[in-house]
Amino acid sequence: MVTRHIVTYGKMIKFSHTIFALPFALSAVLLALREHPVSSAWPVLWIVLAMVGARSAAMGFNRIVDARFDAKNPRTAGREIPAGKISLLSAGLFVGLSSALFVFSAAMLNPLCFYFSFPVLVLLLSYSFTKRFTMFCHLYLGFVISLAPLGAWMAVTGEFSWRIAVLSAALLTYIAGFDIIYACQDTTFDRDTGLFSMPARIGVRASLHLSSLLHVFSTAAFVALLFVFDLNVIYLITVIMIATLYVIEHVVARPGKPEAIQMAFFNINGVISILLFCGIAADLMVEKWL
């Protein structure tokens, strides 16, 4: 019974999609620890819990706010709230508990993280409304998620640094780019219901071109990170591999190919985020050994 409920709520918030942002946050942790080593693993644990809480709150709130749209969309009608598997009240309680986990975890890190947790939570929840009035909702989503590396850096160091903002810029354009690709699935529905996704406003082809441009910027930010943090050849090879995956993604994601869009969205982008973390981790490990 308990396991079934956990699985149901995990499906509601697409827990598997945590794979997109968490590796970026953990990459920021590694870069911070390189310069500010800590003697305990507790900060890393609280960072992970904060990430889980923040994302769960944001996704749960999004499912509540979008429930009436999801019920009308054939692609999303089977989601947990419109399908009646989770009530709005239960989902609201879940969002409240997830928000509390996020704020509490931030408080356990340091005062700076605690103070910032409140405006960050507002930004996370407010994303759910942006698709109602602006086609730049994808960029807003990227911006909100890009706060993860900044938060992880501040959790370890207790201060802000412009250098980690380079990683956040890479994450922003990575997220916004593939969110535009994902939105191509609902172009007709979004137009019919008056929602402001990029594909619904400027068309699928133009949106995919914009997504490609964003991923060029993302690649440029990854390259910049090489110099900002004085990384080494393993990281450079990682960036080349990521750039190659971006090219594959945009070759695969074509108008009128929903199955290809799904593959590009989850499979390729999931590999990119994990590859980044592994590349940075390997680069720093070899640097330490040498």
From TrEMBL:
CDD domains: PT_UbiA_COQ2. Keywords: Cell inner membrane, Cell membrane, Membrane, Transferase, Transmembrane, Transmembrane helix, Ubiquinone biosynthesis. It is found in: Membrane. PANTHER family: 4-HYDROXYBENZOATE POLYPRENYLTRANSFERASE, MITOCHONDRIAL, PRENYLTRANSFERASES. It comes from Desulfosudis oleivorans (strain DSM 6200 / JCM 39069 / Hxd3). It is a multi-pass membrane protein. The keyword S-adenosyl-L-methionine does not apply. Its cofactor is Mg(2+). GO terms for molecular function: 4-hydroxybenzoate polyprenyltransferase activity. The chain crosses the membrane at residues 44-65, 86-108, 114-130, 137-156, 162-185, 206-227, 233-252, 264-286. GO terms for biological process: ubiquinone biosynthetic process. GO terms for cellular component: plasma membrane. This is 4-hydroxybenzoate polyprenyltransferase. Belongs to the UbiA prenyltransferase family. It comes from the Bacteria. Its EC number is 2.5.1.39.
